[in-house]
Records
---
Amino acid sequence: MRSLFASIALATSLVPAIAHEQRVGPRGGALVDAGTYHVELVTRDKAIEIFVSDAQDKPLPANGFKALAILAVSGKSVRVTLEPAPDGSKLIGAAAESLPARVKGAVQLTGADGKTSTGRIN
Amino acid sequence: MKRHFGLVTGMAGGFWRIGLGLAVAVAWLQASQAHEGHDHGAPPPPVSASIAPRFEASSEAFELVGVLRDGKLTLHLDRFLGNRPVADAEIEIDTPVGPQKAQRLGGGSYQIEAPFAAMPGSHDLIATITVGSEIDVLTAALSVPNDEPGKPKPGATDLAQRLPDGAVFVPKPSQRILGLANQKMTKDTHPQAITLPGRIVPDPNASGVVQASVAGRISAPPGGFKRLGTPVKAGEVLAFVQPAISTADLASQAQQIRELEQQVTLVSRRLERFRQVTAGTVTRAQVEDAELELAGLQARRQAVERIQREPEPLVAPVDGVLAAANVVAGQMADPNSILFQIVDPDRLWVEALSYAGVVAGDRGSAILPDGRALSLAFEGAGLSDRNQAVPLHFSILAREAGLRLGQLVTVNVATGRQQEGISVPRASVIRAANGTMLVYEQSNPERFVPREVRVEPLDAERVIVLSGLEPGKRIVTTGAELLHQVR
């Protein structure tokens, strides 16, 4: 019986994920699906960080990935290319101007094999 | 679907399996939700071989469709709500070979060269759309099929078609020709309305009829009879009736005239005699009496003669327009027959027959047979039944051209009760061949799904959908009839 209640609780907790609300990742950034990856985009002033994990939310090393973020900021589009950080935990890039904590736009992730996958941030 | 399947197997196997079944279903749901790769959760349209490769992307503001044909990617940009083309946008597409600015083709269409799409496979694209200060970033994947020999090639244009599941695929260029527009529908509480048969009647205070009071021959006024539709003023002479006198009346009139003439002769002789005889024999009073008698007799004779000669003028009782005329020169008019009808077209009423008793509220609306709507104000209801119904009178609030007396209308009036539902324009609702009512939901930029609904009247312009439709969906409001014709 416990598993029954647990699965019903899980099923009901999933309902908001179906709605259009932007999901938030463990670091407080926007969590989007890009192909088979989960991508969390965190903005800190001018800096952008992208954390890549697999579909089971297991963190993946950033080495080998490249990313392009196109963000809509105060009526302009901002393009930022991101490269792996030296420690390989994330992809980093910097915009020309400071970015708000919540941004809209899209992220394109390019894998080591050259395959791209994109995700949209609401 | 799979979720239900999981649930059913779970139930068959006992309680612990319900949990397992749900968990499996949930895991599937999570995976499918997490990696659908587009924004609005709707399934992508099935790709037909006769349709050129395309992508679609949408946000709360825009809908973008890209069509690949002859190495060029044509983009169609529309508003997500309303489905109106956006012609003044700047579109930049991030292609696998770098960003590219789209060239405007006009009418909400744009184009880029797409040499990268020569390779079969999926190509990720990011579109940055700028319209004034509005900016949006959309993601899409263009899937280019393998060029297999013997496979049918897409035609020069994409054709609108009905898909096997009943939905209708309409490419964006066709949508613009059909003028398809959508509207997001919300659930609300609306007054319950009933539909009554009605017809246009004249306002009794702004209309009148012209009848002859005597039988007689009709003659035209100076300038001739007025044409139908001519404005007339109250008191204006529309025709004359020359009273017809029967033979008996004529004989008695002639007799009366002769009698009067005889008396006139007698009295004038007597007066002459009085004047000839010497004063003193006849008093002054006798002379004056005779003079008065003579004047009276002459006046009576003139009056009798005038009866025969003078026609009765027929005058307009109110200001208005000549609505009906049943006159021809020389025609004999019966007394009480209606010769002219005068109506003020700015003041018409609608008479409706209510079988459900008296209605609440002081407002209503009516639909003309051609679909035009009239707003009505309640004027009064009768108490005596007519054909088992109560007559209700409404005045028409705003003047509408082309109304005719006796024209049949459908009247909608509130009953005073409230009901919850989704109000949609009448033009959205279509009667299908099997008799059911349908509305079309725009589920994707180029896909329209028919939804069977139950509707009730709301007012002249809208109906209320009580079931069959979820709120928040985009419903086709213009062009639904044309969309329904697609086979």
---
Amino acid sequence: MITLAERINGQFLDVKKAIKERDPSVIHELAKKQTEAGATYLDINVGTAAADQEDAMKWLVESTQEAVKTPIAIDSQKLSVIKAGLEVIKNDVMINSAQGDPEVLDTYMQLAKQHNAALICLTMNKDGIPQNVDTRIEIAAEIAGKAMEHDVDMDKIYIDPILFTITVDQKQPAYMLEVFNQIKLISDPSPHITVGLSNLAQGTKEKSLICRTFLTMAIAAGMDTALMDVLDTELMDAAICAEMLLNKQIYSDSFLKAARP
Amino acid sequence: MEIANVVEKCSGIVKEVTIGATKDEGGTRGKVVTIGGANCIPFMDFDGSPGHKPAIAMDVYDAPPEEWPEPLLKHYADVIDNPANWAKKCAEFGADLICLKLDGIHPDKGNRSADETVSTVKSILEAVDIPLIIWGCENDERDNEIMPKVSEAAKGERCLLGGATQENYKTITAVCLADGHNLITQAPVDINIGKQINILVTDLGFPTDRIVMFQTTGALGYGIEYCYSIHERGRMAALSGDHQMATPVICDVGHEAWRAKEAKASDSEAPQWGSFADRGVMWEAITATTLIQSGVDIIRMNHPEAVSIVKKHIENLT
């Protein structure tokens, strides 16, 4: 599966401190560790701490690129912060993320095309985050339509139907499985499907188990990408095993070892 | 109306393997053969690059084969106990490679010594300038004794040596690595073991771009569909990005086709089956032309007419 490694995020205290002190060693270490753990992309999010988010994003992207050539996902809800990251990007890049309003999508699709970037689009719009399956699918279809309109390769589009924390609404994980199944049907080839996996278990006592269990269910329903803790080896192994069980990898006695980074 | 682009792009590519080394490369071959390189399903060149054409290896045995039917034997009767001359004949018939099968070292089939075998290998290397496949007798003890000596004698020639099995892979892998040869990994019509043996040899440090996979071949009427579906599944996995399956494939068509009763029964034994002279040739040619659709890169063959039919068929498809 495609993994976005989540640790270079200003909401973690070590990263917050590194941003504040402009100490690249912490970022280098996280970039290397997560790359070795098999990250497809290193997600970079400045969090809310930095006073100048654009400058902090540039510094984080540059610091990461000093250590690794791993593709980077520039993660911000602010267009100006994403543009700041894109200004200094050298590695392959993903934009994380756009919302599903038509005019917003126009802007982000153009930006993605201009930088040959992959693009995560959230199934939310100015009316907020839909709680049900149908509205999420409507927005997903809008996203796929915009990608075609802008001639962006569907392989570059990642739809994030927004996974709620389990303690907020326990009906949501089951809804999400239905959403995954339906997103696969909106175009051929279909866009990628991604979620912020760790968000599911925020504030719970069994984070790793909850994420791991949902991950295997989600892979079975068609999700192929997640923002997640790639340093959790049991989580990564569960993804490998789920893909093997779905016949996406040929079994061999050493399948786990062969598929690990 | 705009016509949709239906090109199916694959994320994986089959590794290229080069067999044989020229003088400049430390060997003595006049020609080398490169196989693999496909990033689309066989012959679908509108989807991507089908890579190198399948190559034909013609078999030479170190000891005269038993029970070859007359329509096959007649082409080799004068060279059957002279592997070097046999190899020359195969080269004249259009073989891209020679596959020297060392059945004669098997305890039940002659128990030939290492010295005799090494001199056979050397005589073939001198007789022809096309690359060489050297394949043991599948008796682990004898293979482990003789293959290291054969490997050393052919050092620098970048041969393709076989075969590493799940039960016996360490010796042959080590000598191939040391002497710069390519390696056949071998599985008994079992895709899981096929992948496992590739993992085992790469764990020993053997590079994946020197591996050729072999799933024991089934001829037409004798399990070809199992063999076909395994080749197909392995190739689809390779094209989907499974690195352990992204190696070229060899199949053994000649030996398997000529074991079939349809190839061996004489006119008097089976008058209703059509001409004895043609039946075996057809059996071998059809087995080969079927399997090349499944994604194979080297086809071991025996009969010169069958070779000629298959080569023409490959030309027509490419």
---
Amino acid sequence: MSDSIKILNQVFRSTINSYTMVFFSKNRWFGLILVLVSFFDIYAGIAGMISIFTANSFAWLMGLNRANILSGFYGFNALLVGLGLGIAFEPVPQFYLLLISVALATLFLTLAFEGFAGKYGLPYLTLPFLIALWIAALAARNYTTLMQGDSGIYTMNSMYESGGTAVVSIYEWFGDIHWPVAVKTYFKSLGAIFFQYHLFAGLLIAAGLLIYSRIAFLLSVLGFVSAWLFYMLIGADMNDLNYGYIGFNHILTAIAIGGFFMVASRWSMLWVILLTPIISIITSGFSELISSLQLPVYSLPFNVVVLLFLYSMKFRERMLLKPETVAVQYFSPEKNLYIGENSRNRFKNKAYVPVTLPFFGIWTVNQGHNGEYTHKADWKHAWDFVITGEDGKEFSGGGKDASDFHCFNKPVIAPADGWIEEIIDHIEDNAIGETNIQHNWGNTIVIRHNEWLYTKLSHLKRGSIKVSQGAWVSRGQILAACGNSGNSPYPHLHFQVQATPHIGSATINYPVSQFICHSAKQELKIYEIPENGAKVSNVETEQSLKDAFHFVPGQTIRYSNEDAPGHIGEWKVIVDIYKNHYLCDDETGAKAYFFTDGALIFFTHYEGPQSSMLYYFYLAAYKIPLSSYRNLQVKDVFPPSSFASSPLLFFQDIVAPFYIFLKPEFSLTLHEIEEDLNGNRVVLASEVNLKIAGYNRMSYRFTISSNGGKLERMSISAGKVNTVISFLRS
Amino acid sequence: MEKQKYERPHILRLETGMPGKFGMRNEPAPTTHIDGMAVSELAEKYGSPLFVLSEKTIRSVYRQAYKAFSTRYPKVQFAWSYKTNYLSAVCNIFHQEGSWAEVVSGFEYDKALANGVDPKKIIFNGPAKTREELLLATNNESLIHIDHLDELYLLIEVAEHADHRPRVAIRVNMDTGIYPMWDRFGFNYENGQAWDALNKIMHSGKLDLMGLHTHIGTFIMSANAYAVAATKLAELARLLQVKFNHKLKYIDLGGGFASKNTLKGSYLPGSDTNPSFNDYAEAISSALINSHFAPGELPMLILETGRALIDEAGYIISSVIANKRMSTGRRATIIDAGVNLLFTSFWYQHSITVAQGTSQYREDTSLYGPLCMNIDCIRDSINLPLLNPGDHLVIHQTGAYNLTQWMQFIHLRPKVVMIDEMGDAHIVRENEEMESITGLEKLPGHLSSIKA
């Protein structure tokens, strides 16, 4: 891509996003519609565009955050100011001086509000626009060269000027149309957001809104209808809604609260309804207050209500109560809902520090959580482990001596990295059958892994502890030997996780990050609690998979596609300033975000065209375990937005705040493994299935192989795409 | 009422006085069944003598051994020592349990391949590998354990023409405090030969150095010797890491673990005195874990245990041919299994029990085999009850080496049966027939007839 194309592309993105950001969107089609609408009044359209260029170029030259500029964050307030001024004043040369100055002032105001509101984690919405336009309008009264425009008053004239008779006749046709007043007012309110108080503009914006987001469209209707009903009920002057088209405050608030800042749900919708009267009160109240200055309230009610609501929500102690705040903003109510909901399930374990089992080999849980002997009350979340023989017994020989027990004197290892917090190593091991209740825990090690996260290993063999207090230990390091000290009638290892550092601290319910459960077959368990009676062992990392999926920033993955001979595709591994890692295909602009928790590789998000091979890689490698077991099976669910739009998805979008019925399922199995000391060859088979009422709507099949620690091949069988891509060894 | 068993009359010296140091004489119970199968029925159905192998015991002992190591060390791999017992049925049990193959000849190598072992999981040991065998093993990416410099040079040569880089380790011999020191195999640690060979390998640039191997001896009665060996190999691994930044994939401590058999001349029975898998595992794992390796970077531990895994699973069912009295008045019994089948009787006092109920009367007896050779003595002195011709005896712990070192000498070799885990017997090797031996013979024309 040449530099000039690159610059043009960036100008285009920053400009179009400045339009869509008014509706919290980054949808290009929506943007083009909005540009068109803004040019219904040609001079206002030009003023808006100039205002955006002014704000964005200054932002660029001042060295502001480029991602923000490209997202239109610095342009949308300037756009609204430009449109407002463009409608209000005649396009004399002096006007443009004022316009550029106000646009620059809007940028400063934007930054001021960004800094101020940002500290509270709040958005600045259109506050900069409000202040700038009010001040500019008041100030302009003193500037004699500026003339009040009449385009807002003599609409026909301005129509004729910009589009000739054709536009005028379209306008007239809409003027004559006999739709219910509520419907007309809804569309006019939408148009009013861009200072176009007529039906046609509103219809176009509504269409754009529908293209952008079904949920946003639904919310706009909800916000408007509840306002309409409230005004009817309260007996207020309908003109408030009708004349100034202040109804758009209700629409924007509904989108912001209903699906953009909060995850769309029946609860967020309930809030939209509850907030309606407040918007109305603020509208009427402030109208009275500033009418003395002859200023309209514009979007003030929207700003005040949204900020008040978002700020209040921050005081909740339980953030996961409905409606939930959107954690990662995708600029789409659908994606915020689908991906948010999906990620909450997928990554619910991300907060855990991985704690593994504190021993080598297969041990048996002989008392689990809420055990029948001693794991009760404050100490109920603990495990006792022993080793059982072929015969199921814990000992061979007579079992009269501690050394008859399989687990006695076996190494006990660190379950996670940490510091040794406390040690007791002097308590005599008991004779079999006897207990020492004076020293309940016997010889014990407490390890500090994190603040509020400690593990404790008890009943260790006297004198077996190999580490000292304060020492750093790494996971897997040998700490001591299993013994029979303390309240222990026969040798076993007591293991618990606790939040405080003391011997005798209460336990906390904390899962083991990953382990294999050995029953009739081996099962990989991830963040689960080993159950009483289970035979469990640590997971052995499959080095070949670990190496193959170890994407290092700066690395380039090259592949050739069977269907496109001679073409070498490239994916770059990139890390951004937020430490997000992703694969990037420069050719298509596709990005596939991933992260690893040490046990699994997750692909978290994909953006870009769904024709890119990277898209299929994202689907195929959605969740990859870094271990290989014969009957390994990994399952997961995709957000519906990961797949191309369809009538089904359209319908899903509409009902999404209430029910998600599209659940594309991911499953992965170990297809084949060829062991090799120099790196195994591992073939994983994954599937994506979408079933609705038992009928399979979609069935994609993939295999991914790694050989000797490198990606080898991926086969794709996904609808019309059937191909094999081979990764080039680098 | 069952008919009383006839016992021949005998005269017994009256033994009075105190019982021995270990209490009254311990008389082992008759072995009437092996894994639920009646010995008499086995002998009747498959003939006598008869080798019997217990699949249940093989698997159980293997699992005990694996558990002893895997609960002490994160990455353990057994490699079945073919020379100990290369009956395919036996090998395949070990392979099913997860064992690799450890072979010491081209014949054994081919046998492992025929058993379906992944060539990458075959360890090729031994002092006598031919160029062809080395080339085959190289192309198959098997693990070649180099025994001497001539082999090293040959392998570097072979590497030039091979499809793959040879994957090698060297066998190291060392002083572990054990006598005799097995310094005829591999490169010596103390005098620097081993380090020298490792340098040659690294500098050659043609070989993939995968690991280190040692095999300190056989029937090692002290677990500590393995700790010494493991420490010395770990030191070599450390040196390789320091000098060449080369990380080894495995450390192979070979075999040599004692089984529960009692060596001749031992005062106490082997089952009481020989180290257990736990003892060996403790010594080896501790030594490796306490060496320089970081917790996540411990190399794979390979064990080529043979004898200790299979001895217990083997039995010979034999029948009494005759009783006689020697010139000294000592009782002697002749049975149909001799040193031709029981090579290990040269160094073990095999436990031998009767297969049917007897009275409490017993007599010190010399037990001879059926060969017309003076050496054919199974036990010089064993306290046995009074036996009649046709009575069955069971010789215990015969699984290791006997089925590979047995001789077709004077008698043809008998059937081998294996009792599976369900208690059903399968013939895993047929008895030899005249044709088995003479079929290989060729007669020059002038000798084809004895009529002149």
---
Amino acid sequence: MIQTAWLIPIFPLVAMAAIVLFTHRHRALSAGISIAAVSLSFLWGWSVAVSVWGDPTVHRMSFDWLNLGESMYIPIGIQIDGLTGMMLVVVTTVALMVQIYSLGYMRDDPRYSRYYAYLSLFTMAMLTLVLADNFFLMFVSWELVGLASYLLIGFWFEKQSAADAGKKAFITTRLGDLGFILGLLLLYTGCGTLTFQGVFSAVDSHVLSGGLLTIAGLCLFAGAVGKSAQVPLHVWLPDAMEGPTPVSALIHAATMVVAGVYLVARSMSIFLAADRAAMVVAWIGIITSVMAASIGLVQNDIKRVLAYSTVSQLGYMIMALGLGGFTAGTFHLMTHAFFKALLFLGAGSVIHAVHTNDIREMGGLHAKMKTTSITFLIAALAIAGVFPLSGFWSKDEIVAATLGHPIFTVLTLAVAFMTAFYMFRLYFLTFTGKPRDQHKFDHAHESPKTMTVPLQILAVLSVVSGWIGLPWLEHGFSSVVFHEHPHHPEFHVVWAFIAALVGLSGIGLAYMMYYKGSIDPERVRARATGLYTTLLNKYYFDEAYSVLFVRPYYTMCRGWFWFDQHAIDGAVNGLGRVSVAWSVFNRWFDETFVDGAVNGVGWLTRGFGAIVRHLQTGRVQNYAFIVFAALVVLWLLQ
Amino acid sequence: MSAFDLTKFYADWQIILPECFLFVWALFVLTLATLGKKDEPGRSGTFALWTILGALITAVWVGVTADGAAFGGTFVFDRLAVVFKEVVLGGVILTAISSIGTVGRLEVHRGEYYGLILLSAVGMLLMVSATELLTLYIAIELSTMGLYVLAAYHKGSRRSAEAGLKYVILGGISSAILLYGVAWLYGLTGTTNLAAIKDAVMNIYMSTGGFPPAMTLALIFVLAGFGFKLALAPFHMWAPDVYEGAPTPITAFLSVASKAAALAAFLRVFFVGLESAAMAWTQMIAALAALGMIVGNVTAIVQTNIKRMLAYSSVAQIGYILVGAVARDTWGATAISFYTMAYLFANMGAFICVIAFSERTGSDEIADYNGLAARSPVLAAFFALFLLSLTGIPPTAGFLAKYYVFLAAVNAGYLWLVIVGLLTSVIALYYYATVIRKMYFPSGETASTITVSKSLTLALVISTIGVLFFGVFPGPFVGWIQNAAQMLLAGK
């Protein structure tokens, strides 16, 4: 199986090509091809993962893509170890579930085939990303997942906001990619290679160290900040919810957004050696986590709550990695992928039933959609960290990773509390109580089997996926992923208890406020209006960016263009006018003082003025003037 | 040279065979145009195509069989010449194919159109091989003369006439500047041969421990002359007006083939002839490259006309290419050459899309590209691909080209320039993505479907193959280029 692992991304690639070239007119066939391909990837991915489970060797296969001797040598290949195996499982499982789910969710969409083509493109790129054995190939697929994400966010482009959101996502993440590619260039000049093996051995043997390593690490991390929606580049992810909900589940919850986490985890050697860079990573992670969780407390759009929750949980993972908890971060990556995908798909099922995203128009839906409600509840319990669901085990490892850094421990627990609270606020407002919009409630119905079966499967995974991290397992998660650096965190019974208690109290508060009604949310809101408004406006990030960057930038562009066109134009027109005036003066002079012989000169001048005005060639003089001015400036600079 | 040496004579002419071939057939196409009836636009076009293909094959053949200098060291056919001749001829072929529709709509002077393109191409081929400054100057003039006329080819259109006139005036000024620089160099070194200039400049440096102000002056003038040909900021002012006014195939020709030839000459003059004065020009080029990337990309954002947008974008692209020039080594020369190749296909392809679009709609406004994906899925896909390659998104050739250029610059210690390049490439993504978004995510109703003519489809397919092939399998080709760069720098 491992020898043919390179086939895993090939299947969806073939599917995409087949849909685009041949079957785009046949809806069912296109979907079928796409799902068949991802099923093959799923089987391959799982069997590869199983065969490397507990196997400490790293399997590498590569060929020379570009071999130019010392100046540039880029081999392209794949690398399979425990981390890759885990990512393969996550990506193929969620991709398969989402593609099946989309059969029902996107059933009435006119661009069904195109949707599946995009999904296949994304799956291919994402699988390449996790299989790559070098930074170069990783960057290439990194850009491709960004492209697929752009296309899928803007999929319903009839909505202006969707098209805008796609572009915002593309460009914001691309800002982070600047750092990524700069990091690649630095690593290449420092190590002479971009393969993981080469770079990490150079780092381990201190060929690359000190300030350059720190800067390279921070540059790589900038890429992760963009892709994984960390502060200050997190603004694109909530807007990305304009895309179809299954896309949000696949790309913006479970897979693409964790690419940044994966990048940091993969570059473990770099961040272990560059501890200052690692501290930046940890701080960015926790700041993002706290900020996003607090915004999630007050949102009323079901998908936006989940989006902020995703940002917050990604911050968790990033923070854990920054603090050296590489197993904790990647373990949470896996469990989170399952329960967050489930939450999104559940939200999709609700939206499918009531045709609104606003939780204020929902309520009491448990009666109408039992499967959705129960699976959603399971996922909510998992994310809240309730024993013995998957989130309990991974969250415990994250808390354990913060031990020794009291600020981080406190903030982590605070986030755990907020997470449990907003998740159950969401659950109670959506599924329990009285319907707040009777009309919508009456038309609600449980989703078809194609949608509920993926929910059930993911619900099972949300429960059990944490168990492979059981602390007393011989070959548990921590000995499989990152076996090169054996890392067996102690199971902290006390901290596990505390974390679970914090989660339960969050649930309890939500229960009292939104189920029992013993605390009135309105009164809480009234007592903290300022905070509430700030949170509702997401700390004014978008507004600040608009004032600080976007508007001045546009002004600059226009100014520049104005200079390019009008300043010169103006000057030229001025010149033209002078010429004309001159010719008028000439005529007057001629007619008054000079006889016919001189008339010729005046006529020439006037003629030239007319040509100047007519063709606006006066501008040419100014162009020439700029050329000469540039010559002088260059001369002066030398 | 006492006795007439027949073997030497034969060897000399063998080396210049592609130019001769092209020149003779260019005259034939011109003659044909005068003799033939006015209503046969296809014939001279077909002849021109066969001629270029013939020249391409001849160039490959000469590249395989002959090697070395000719005509007393004024003209050379080395590996670099092969690379750039193929690039130039590739650009000429695509121009010729995409001109068929445009020429078909001309009322008069159809045949001369191709004749002029071919004559201009002869000048470009000479530019690629010239190793002596006066030969180079004459080659530049030869290539530009044809372009002046071609830019104004839509005589009835005011914009086109204006474009031609502007181009002539500014071209004349820049030629004078270049020639003035050459004169200064001659005054300083006593030669116009690049290899000899290299030694003489080295001698000046060794004997005085620096350069006299006249040297700087000469450098600035020569650089400005090249700056004009390359539309490098701040010598780019002519480009948007001329690009907008000229017939679109000619715009493509100007922006690709002519620049490729100028880049080859640039490599010869700066990497060989003025190599010993590198410390005097590297900073200058870095500054101009940064200026080009900033001015080109920033100004492109506010354009509403697609040809003007592409004009500013190609100002920026030249900036990116010259980022490679700050690394005055094999890396730099390879990066520049590969970028030129990637730029050839992507930019040519983008302009061909513009041609195809305006042939059916008569519009060059970006706003009219709204919903193109629905009106012509194929055309939109092609255009998006070329724009993505210009942005530098993998797996297109443009990505590897940018990567290579930046890598060369980082290696040479110009990190700040790379940061400028990366930042401006985000800006570039913004305006390219605006067009893609208009095509794929339209607002409002979209108009009827658009069909693309067969010849343009062919040109688009060739460009697409180029963009993808050199992006996915660059290995052999880049190796070849690198070899050419090594030979150039080794002075072989």
